[in-house]
Amino acid sequence: KPEFAFIGRSNVGKSSLINMLCNHKGLAKTSATPGKTLLINHFIINNEWYLVDLPGYGYAKRSKTVQDKLDKMIRSYILQREQLCNVFVLIDIRHEQQKIDREFVDWLGASGIPFSIVFTKADKLGPVKAKGNVKQWMDALLDTWETLPPYFITSSEKKTGKDEVLNYIDEILKEIKG
Ligand code: GDP
């Protein structure tokens, strides 16, 4: 079955987003302790596609050895998985572009992996500031890339952006079915 993967730095709001998308409170464990997911978790949705919860990258408090192993696992999953339709890269809307996020996005682009950006925690900023940050983030990609990936602005707190992400997944599923 088709797979859609979600990844981001620890504490970016990945578990909250996954739970919002699935209408579920305890599917992916949210916690105030970052860096908990060490495994690749698959959740079957509507008996139609897999939501794949990837471990966070670049978590400073993990030992370098552990993080290197995780990074290898993540990258080999992404490169080898034929069923993988899209990688959603989560970015905290409050922060300016971090090197580690940018490197990961550049790696996806260079590897020809379809991906899109999900800005999280939009409720933490006013709409003007949020839009400004998104524009900055996306514009910075134009240094390297000619075309920009699709992006979504979400808040798991306010339950916004959910339909946009789910509709995007639906469109891809429809395309596959032909
Ligand atoms: P993960 O480590 O990426 O899975 O992040 P979590 O989903 O566990 O969230 C990390 C922290 O951010 C928790 O304290 C969440 O309550 C908080 N959080 C996550 N999403 C949102 C959001 O959309 N808005 C706000 N205000 N807080 C959020």
Domain module tally: 1
CATH topology: Rossmann fold
Enumerate the spans where pLDDT stays under 50 for 5 or more consecutive residues.
Answer: none
CATH architecture: 3-Layer(aba) Sandwich
Could you report the average pLDDT, rounded to the nearest whole number?
91
Sheet with most strands: strand arrangement: 2-3-1-4-5-6
Q: Identify the CATH homologous superfamily.
A: P-loop containing nucleotide triphosphate hydrolases
Coarse shape: globular
CATH class: Alpha Beta
**Distinct ligands:** guanosine-5'-diphosphate
Helix tally equals 5
Q: Helicity, in percent?
A: 25-40%
**Count of β-strands:** 6
Describe the protein in words.
The protein is an alpha/beta fold and 178 residues long. The protein has a single domain (3-177), classed as P-loop containing nucleotide triphosphate hydrolases (Rossmann fold), CATH 3.40.50.300. It has helices spanning 14-21, 64-80, 99-110, 127-141, 162-177; strands at residues 3-8, 41-45, 49-53, 84-92, 115-120, 151-153. Strands 2-3-1-4-5-6 form a six-stranded mixed β-sheet, sandwiched between helices. Strand 4, helix 3 (99-110) and strand 5 form a beta-alpha-beta unit. The chain is globular and about 40 Å long. The mean pLDDT is 91. Bound molecules: guanosine-5'-diphosphate. The site of guanosine-5'-diphosphate (GDP) has 19 residues, from helix 1. The site of guanosine-5'-diphosphate has 19 residues, from helix 1.
